[in-house]
Amino acid sequence: MHSKDRAVILFDGACNFCNASVQFILKRDPNGCFQFASQQGDAGRQLMDRYEVPSSINSIVLIKNNQAYYKSDAALQICKQLSGAWRMCAWLLVIPRPVRNLFYDVLARNRYKWFGKSESCMLPKPEFRSRFLE
Prior knowledge:
By secondary structure, this protein is an alpha+beta fold. It has a single domain (3-118), classed as Glutaredoxin (3-Layer(aba) Sandwich), CATH 3.40.30. The protein has helices at residues 16-27, 42-50, 71-81, 97-115, and strands spanning 7-11, 34-38, 61-64, 67-70. It has a four-stranded mixed sheet, sandwiched between helices. GO terms for molecular function: protein-disulfide reductase activity. It holds the Pfam family DCC1-like.
C-alpha cells in the first residue's frame, strides 16, 4: 500500500494506554492501512493544524480520506480496518455518538491515572518504523 493511501492515526505519545493501543493496531493491521504520528511531534502537529483539530482535543485522531475523526468515531473507524473479530465493533456506530463518547471521555480523562504516562514517546520496532511519521 502506498503511503499516500494510508490513513494516519495521531496519538498521545506520552500516554501508556495510547502507546499500547498503537502496538495493538500494528499487530492487527497486516495490510499496513495505517501510519502513525505522535500528537506531540512535528508531523502530528502539522496534521492537526491542517485538519483544524483543536489543540484541547482529548482523543485519538484518525485522518482518513481527507477527514479527521475523533473519539469513538476514530476508534470504531480504526476497528473497521483491523483483522479478525475487531471489525465487528463497527456495529457500535449505530449507537448515537453522544452516548458512545460518554464512555470514550471517561477513559480519555482517566487514562494517565489508570495506565500511566511516559516522559517520552515510544520507539517503534524496526519492522514498523517506516509507518511512523516524524
